[in-house]
Each structure stands twice: as C-alpha cells, then as structure tokens.
Amino acid sequence: MSTKPVRVLTLLCSTRPGALGREVGRWLHEAIAPRAAQLGVELVPVALGDLNLPFLDEEEHPSSGVYRHEHTREWSAIVDAADGFIAVTPEYNYGMPATLKNALDYLGREWAWKPIGFVSYGNTSAGTRSVQHAKQVVTTLRLVPLGATVAIRIGDATENGRLLSDAARDRAGAGLLDELVRVAQALRPLRERARADSRPGPLPGSYARRLTPGDEPQVTVLQRCCWTEEAIVNDTLAIPALHEPAEEVRDWLATWHTTGVWLDGRLLGMVRARRDGTDWLVGRLAVVPDLRGRGLGRWLLRAAEAAADSDCRRVLLFTGAKSLRNIDFYQSEGYRSTPLAGPAGTTRLTKDLSPMDTSPMDTEAGSPR
Predict the structure, then answer these.
(1) Position 186 in a domain
(2) What pLDDT was estimated at residue 304?
(3) 133 pLDDT band (50/70/90 cuts)?
(4) Same domain (yes/no): 78, 225
(5) Edge-to-edge strands of the sheet including 144-153?
(6) For residue range 14-50, what is the model confidence (pLDDT) as tens digits?
(7) Residue-wise burial string across 318-333, b where 16 or more C-beta atoms lie within 10 A, e elsewhere
(8) How far apart are CA 330 and CA 224, in angstroms?
(9) From CA 37, how far away is CA 43, in angstroms rounded?
(10) What is the domain extent for residue 109?
C-alpha cells in the first residue's frame, strides 16, 4: 500500500438558497473527521456553487484536456489533485442536480480511476434515485462508485431545519470513508499509469515519469531502504539520504530533474540530475534491492544522461569510496575516476558527453538508445 496520504473532496452539490445541503455537509465532516485523522486522510470541502462554473462553455471536448477558460483550469487542478470524492447531493425530480452533472461534464482524465461515494438526502426516496442517476454518469468518466452510501430521509432526520443526532448515521459515514480509502488505494496504480507525463519503463508493465514534491513519502522510503547498505559498506552513517527530513526531500524534488520508475503504484527506482555550470550533475541513483540485476539502474542512469542540456560537456557524479560494486557499474558505463576528491568518503566520477549521449529516450522500446 502506498504511503502517500489520500485526499478526499466532499462535493456539496446543491446551490439552492436555504437547502439542507450545507447542514448535511457539516454533519458529514464532523462525523468522519476522527476516522479521517486515523487513516491519514485529507478532507477538502468544495461547494460547487462557489466554483462559479457556467454551463459547459469550452470549445474543445473535455477528453482533449485543452481548457481555454480560467474557471476550467482551476476546477481541473482541484479534481486532478484528489484521490476520491464524496458527493453530498439532493434529489431533484428523480435525478441529480444540474450543478453536479455540469461539474462532471467539464473534465475527463482528471476523474479517471478514482472512487466516488454518495451522501444523499430527500423526502420519499431519501435521495437514492439521485444516486442511481449519478452512477450511470460517473462510470462513463471511469469514476468508480462505491457500494456504501448514506441516505437521509428529511422528514425523519430533521427538526427545525437541523439534522438530529443519529449514531447509526455517524457509523455509516465512517464506513463510507473506510471503503472509499480502500478503493482509492487499490486504484492508485491505475491513476499513476494514466498520468499524461508517464512513459513506458524498462520492465514489463512499468512506467516512468518525473517525480514531484508530492512523491516525497515514496522517495523517503526508497532512500532509507537503499542507502542503509551504503552506510554499512562505507562504515558511516553520515549519508544525507538516510537523515533528510520530509521538507528537504520535497525541496530538492522541486528543483532537481528526478525520474522515477513505477510498477503497480510502487516506486522501483529513481535518479536525479541538474545542471552545474557546464557539468550535468547526477545523483541519488537507487533501485529496490529485490529488483537489482534486471537493468533498472542502467536504464535510469541513461535516462538521466539523456536529459542533459545540449551544451553540457560532461556528467559528474559521486559514490562511496568503498562502494566497489557501484564504481564497477559506473566504469562499465564509460565513467572514470578523477584525481579531484569529492566530499569526504566519496569517489568522484565523470563521463564526457557527446551528441549520442543526449539523444532522446526510445519510448517505444522502453529503453534509451
């Protein structure tokens, strides 16, 4: 299971003045907040009425991802950053409100492979027909509707416009969140694979993409796993990768060009690079121990080299002075040790760049040229 927190948007769908929706939304947050804290879930309330989305006014089809209006781009960013949704919705004439349908219709890729649960409210059917209507639509967008729902019959559950306390309803809300988190975690590999910036990786079914500050939890775990061996081989714990706090990891993920290889939502390996004068500095090459010897490290190193700026003259990297296996590997890739010393306890290696070294990745074959 991923160590990345789950972000859940609670969508308040009604825009009718005086509607019960805000009261239901308030109850939902109060009821599930303790469970959300236990699960490490970030709850983000979004009132569709506050988005000021007009009826769909984009010229291009939502599947294109080409958005001309700022309100669409803002809505896209909000939905794209979420891992799942809970729609708090009334029932209007046997269906969902137009605000929800319109908000769904604006986007395409951003919804895919994310779970959606429903809290409905109404009179005769407690809003359940609205949920059934919505489920027909969301599956087309590759949203995954949950089996668990909460249905509130207004006549039985309210008094003077306020929701009455109901322990069973509170438990149902927490159960809805539990199921949503389980499904969101299970679907994370599909969401990762569907990202627009991913490309085929070196192993069957794997994919590569640039890492971002949001990948800090997985990067931290990979670093702790891989550099423990380096600490033992070099007889030192003075290795930054073993001690960096989350804030520092996020900071360098924001500034270095870092490539990660993934399989089924698991980060298998990474490498980072950036320009340093006329040098292309490469570092933090790591591969999970159980998959070493299968070409991942070589693929990542060549990917880092291929990302070098065209006017960089050489690649520069450092490894532990006693890390003989690493040194042999780099030398097999054309690197040579230099007489200039690196940081204490490290060996400095360089490789001259040629036009061939900076050729683009062969994404069709899943390996660099």
Answers:
(1) yes
(2) 96
(3) very high
(4) no
(5) 41-47, 6-12, 84-90, 115-122, 144-153
(6) 999 888 999 999 999 999 999 999 999 999 999 999 9
(7) bbbbbbeebbebbeee
(8) 22
(9) 9
(10) 6-193
| CA gap 363, 209 in Å, rounded | 12
Say how far apart CA 9 and CA 128 lie, in whole Å.
20
3-class SS of residue 187:
helix
Tokens of 79: 């939905």
Across 277-300, average pLDDT: 95
Radius of gyration (Cα) for the chain, nearest Å?
A: 25
Lookup: tokens for 305: 């080299």
Paired with 92 in beta bridges are 95
Element of type H or E holding 346: strand 346-352
When the pLDDT of each residue in the chain is averaged and rounded to a whole number, the result is 90
pLDDT above 60: residue 368 = no
Residue 233 resides in a domain: yes
Q: pTM for this one?
A: 0.69
Look at residue 358 and tell me whether its pLDDT is greater than 70: no
Cβ atoms of 259 and 283 closer than 8 Å = no
Of 141, 160, 193, which residue constitutes the final position of a domain?
Answer: 193
Query: Residue 339: pLDDT above 90?
Result: no
Number of domains in the chain: 2
Residue 51: closest CA among 92, 7, 12, 107 = 12
Residues 6 or more apart whose Cβ sits within 8 Å of residue 2: 185, 188, 217, 218, 265
Residues 220 and 186 in one domain: no
223 and 126, same structural domain? Answer: no
Q: How far is CA 226 from CA 107, 284, 285, 299, 337, in A?
A: 40, 10, 9, 17, 23
